[in-house]
Amino acid sequence: MTSNGSTNQTLCDPISRSSLPGFIFIYSLVFLAGMILNSFTLWFHFCRAEINNSKSWMIYLKNLTIADFLLCLGLPLRIADYAGSHDTVHQFYCTFGAAIFYLNMYTSILLMGYIAASRYMRIFQPSRASFLMTVPAARLISAITWGFFLLPIIVYIILTLDTSKPPPASTTCDVLLSGPAKLFYTVIHASAFVIFLLVLGSLVFFYYSTSRRVQQVQQRRLGSSNSNKLLKSRRNMLVLGGVFCVCFVPYHLVRLPYIVLRGQCSVVLYYLKEATVLISVFNICLDPLIYVFLCKDFRAQLNLLQMFSTPKDSSSISSEVM
Asked: Which of 119-128, 209-218, 232-241 is predicted most confidently?
């Protein structure tokens, strides 16, 4: 906090940026792991195009991988901001880095909802939503989603750049916002919170409906092929919902009170917010788990890598890939 009275009313700086070595270390590990995992998944998506472009939910998975990879590329800027090397780095992060972070977070949230909806409709309502399950529809929906979030992000960046405030030495980005930028910032977060709640409710509904159908089928025909298919669908919904809840629920539980009470400069609330942001970023390491469960071709590629790491004859490899 500064000694200037007028600045005290607007500048909330509960800690020093140089006191965050733990976050720097963990973010560095997440960055390395995320780059390795998402580089492999990107290779899988773009080198196996004949497989990956044949299903709508694979289009959503491909866009989810792109969002994760872009978030990986933005992590060094967040790490540099934690290091507190220069105020210009902090201003650049608050203007561009934070915007990219939120763009990819909420794009990922919606894409996970699309994946769950596509898998659900494929089993339970194949005739009612035949167009929505096509590849062209998935590409159109994905493009609209990126544009839907990119437009307000561009407006936010313009409003932030237009501010006349000098870059203060602070750990938060709030002080860089002018009046219009703060209002727009609040509207964006309120809208994003509503989107999060809608996707969370959808995932809960999909899992509940699938579990209920599994129980009904098992009561009538225990061990049938239809029951096994539903069991796999329920498992996939559980994986999607589990990754979603672990990564995004803690952040949104803390983010809302943080925005409301940010003027109180609470150290505990600040660290809670930063910790939940880190948990949400960990999504880039957990998303490959979704590919392992949902995509048998992705599992085949993992098996193929294992085969290349051990000496086997060519006929054995061919039979295992089939």
From this structure: 232-241
Round to whole Å and give the CA distance between 28 and 33. 9
260-314 pLDDT tens trace: 776 666 777 888 888 999 999 999 999 888 888 777 777 776 665 555 455 444 4
Flag whether 315 is in a domain: no
User: What does the alpha-carbon distance between residue 229 and residue 235 come to, in Å, rounded to a whole number?
Assistant: 10
CATH number of the domain enclosing 101: 1.20.1070.10
- Residue 139: φ, ψ to 5°: -65, -40
What's residue 90's pLDDT? 78
Full residue range of the structural domain in which residue 257 is found: 16-299
**pTM, 2 dp:** 0.82
- Which amino acid is located at 19 in the chain? S
Which residues, in sequence order, are CB contacts of 194 under 8 Å at separation 6+? none
Domain membership of residue 93 (yes or no) is: yes
> What tokens were used for 219?
């009561």
Q: Where are the alpha helices (DSSP H) in the chain?
A: 5-8, 21-47, 49-52, 56-83, 87-92, 98-124, 135-161, 179-220, 225-260, 267-281, 283-294, 296-308, 314-321
Does some domain include residue 64?
Answer: yes
Cβ neighbours for 299, distance < 8 A, ≥ 6 positions apart:
292
Helix (H) or strand (E) holding 123, with range, is helix 98-124
